[in-house]
Amino acid sequence: MADENRSPAPHRSVLFVPADKPRAIEKAATLGADALILDLEDAVAEDAKAQARQSAPAAVAAWREAGMRTLLRVNGVRTDFFSGDCAVAAKAKPDAVVVAKANRAETLLKVRAALDAAGYQGPVWAMIETPTAILNLRLIGEIAADVGLEALLAGTNDLAAMLRCRLDEERRALRPHLAQIVLAARAYGLIAVDGVYNDFTDRAGFEFEARAGKALGFDGKSLIHPSQVEAANRAFSPSKDEVDWASKVVAAFEDPEHDGRGAIALDGRMVERLHLDAARAILAMAQDRTE
Ligand SMILES: CC(C)(COP(=O)(O)OP(=O)(O)OC[C@H]1O[C@@H](n2cnc3c(N)ncnc32)[C@H](O)[C@@H]1OP(=O)(O)O)[C@@H](O)C(=O)NCCC(=O)NCCSC(=O)C[C@H](O)C(=O)O
Ligand SMILES: [Mg+2]
To answer: Which of 224, 227, 228, 229 to mutate to test the pocket of ligand 1 (most atoms within 8 A of CB)?
Structure first.
């Protein structure tokens, strides 16, 4: 029976791994990431796609054997590679298929139909990485249940390129759009994963961006390099201050003096029952992450 007190599976660190790099594939399952995405799209050059596809089912099987949550990113629905990639998904049976350039509700309906026809019934993740996709988030959310949509994943490289915006370290130009991705995820009950940080040698920059993503409400961050895994897990786990606050809130509401109260004072601030729910979620998450 499912344990209702457990928090949902974590997606703090979601590592992209090029499907044509055997060494990276082998290493990926040992890095402590919460999920791995075997990439058939942008990480793989056109002349390497056929080989990458051929080796994909074995890579997915090896990761599953290692107990990893395993995803497969397929090429966009308009590309020549899409239908072949759907056949790979059917054979490999990943935990979810990541749909590149999921720009419209119709795109996802087409992808769902193609995956079903190929024999893959699992969930899909939508990459939100174009201005059109941002404008269509509500329509995409409304068909989430019909297409088995599980998560929204920000594709910040494509999005920034298409917006022709300049990316500073605070991603100021992208923030309104990232906030809309989180908004849609929360409205439609989906996982929200932030985009990648390209400068994999800049640890401080990565940590700053990961914390900013958490502050925006994302559940985790997509990654491109092993050096980013541990920092992402840390940034998206409850901090010591959060755990201390949550313990105090739970203890305060359990105090018989506060029996039946909707709102109480704690350290000079008001806390309500909605904060109690949040506090319990933080404690459950903290417990799961340390088990
Ligand atoms: C970014 C890289 C090309 C860097 O490669 P390289 O210089 O070879 O890295 P290192 O020498 O530092 O690698 C050290 C060891 O780590 C392994 N490694 C490297 N990357 C990965 C990985 N992603 N997963 C697992 N293991 C990895 C190497 O094999 C080395 O191992 P060892 O030999 O034992 O020392 C490279 O990191 C890379 O290719 N990263 C992934 C790139 C990718 O997938 N890009 C596409 C997804 S991102 C995207 O598309 C975003 C989105 O769509 C958007 O629009 O924003
Ligand atoms: Mg992209």
So the answer is: 224
Residue with token string 């901090």? 239
Structural domain span for residue 64 = 13-235
Q: What is the pLDDT of residue 288?
A: 78
3-state secondary structure 128-178: ECCHHHHHCHHHHHHCHHHHCEEEEEECHHHHHHHHCCCCCCCCCCCHHHH
How far apart CA 143 and CA 148 sit, in angstroms, is 9
* DSSP code for 227: G
- CA-156 nearest atom, ligand 1: 56
Reference 287, options 248, 245, 221, 237; nearest CA is 237
Answer whether 0.90 is exceeded by the pTM.
yes
Q: How far is the CA of 286 from the centre of ligand 2 (A)?
A: 32
Distance, in Å, from the CA atom of 221 to the CA atom of 214, rounded to the nearest integer, reads: 9
Q: What is the DSSP letter of 268?
A: T
Domain boundary among 212, 235, 258: 235
pLDDT digits (tens, 9 = 90+) for 85-126: 999 999 999 999 999 999 999 999 999 999 999 999 999 999
Q: Is 250 exposed, middle or buried (0-12, 13-18, 19+ CB in 10 A)?
A: middle
ipTM of the complex model: 0.99
CATH number at residue 191: 3.20.20.60
Residue 114, domain member (yes or no): yes
